Amino acid sequence: MTAEKAKLNIIKVGGNVINDAETLSGFLKDFAQLKGAKLLVHGGGKIASTISQSLGITPQMIDGRRVTDAETLRVITMVYGGLINKGIVAQLQALGCNALGLTGADMNIIPAQKRKPEPIDFGFVGDFDPQQINTQQLSTLINQGITPIMSPLTHDQDGSMLNTNADTIASGLAQALSADFEVALVYCFEKSGVLRDADDDHSVIPQITPEVYQDLKDQGVIFAGMIPKLDNAFGALNSGVSKVHITHAEQLLSLGEKGTVLCQV
Ligand SMILES: Nc1ncnc2c1ncn2[C@@H]1O[C@H](COP(=O)(O)OP(=O)(O)O)[C@@H](O)[C@H]1O
Ligand SMILES: CC(=O)N[C@@H](CCC(=O)OP(=O)(O)O)C(=O)O
Fold it and tell me: Which numbered atom of ligand 2 lies nearest the CA of 18?
């Protein structure tokens, strides 16, 4: 008989939540109260753009995605790996949560490759294979009661950091850590879930299957950043993650009743 795996909650919090200090601290209070083993992945695209601009570097976007040139890589390494990550760690420590801030380069957790420049050159952006994620030391830390706080940075194994989407990191970590834990993955953002009308927070779709997802995409109900988020979310569900939720950052402690749950069929 195989032993039951311990439960692990992997929570991803997005840029619009992090951008507002009050909303972020409310979310972190709830996160600190979440029982059991947990790991937080943070984004921070909005703050990166604001700080870039204040340094005189105009953020460059193609199809809504950041182009990370050498100067931008320096900024995002400071902002994601430093300012945001350590700010969250300090707040969680004050709330009695033993947080440890990490990038994908630390302990070689997420070895990645710089994306090829064709057809679009996004610069220093990293892609990785979830099967290459090194979970052994991360799992040991989690089992010791440490709460890892992961920033959206990987490395190219040749001395350079790389910018990597936070939703993709959350999905990849959830898949890899499913070997050691029963993982629930929760995407927290500034809306109540996946909505039938993106401007109406009362129009939450409680459950989404791949078929429903395809229909909603075809109808234009799901668009922009919600498409890669759901692709990452279904990717996790198809690769060993036991449950995936998409919900408002204020609803972290009431997942059973609120937000959207993904289903395989
Ligand atoms: N059906 C939908 N329901 C909710 N949000 C949607 C929907 N379709 C598109 N969106 C957009 O997706 C965005 C979330 O994706 P994104 O901006 O990448 O979030 P984050 O930065 O938290 O990862 C929302 O802010 C919203 O504008
Ligand atoms: C390559 C890539 O997409 N990098 C993202 C990383 C931050 C992120 O994912 O933040 P949110 O979760 O707040 O969107 C970027 O620089 O915008």
Answer: 13
pLDDT for 69 equals: 97
CATH topology of domain 6-189: Carbamate kinase (3.40.1160)
- Known binder of ligand: residue 44? yes
Q: What is the pTM of this model?
A: 0.98
What's the pLDDT tens digit per position in 91-125?
Answer: 999 999 999 999 999 999 999 999 999 999 999 99
| Ligand having the closest approach to the CA of 152 | 2
145 is in an annotated binding site: no
Answer yes or no: is the ipTM higher than 0.90: yes
Cβ-proximal residues to 108 (8 Å cutoff; 6+ apart), any chain: 134, 155, 157
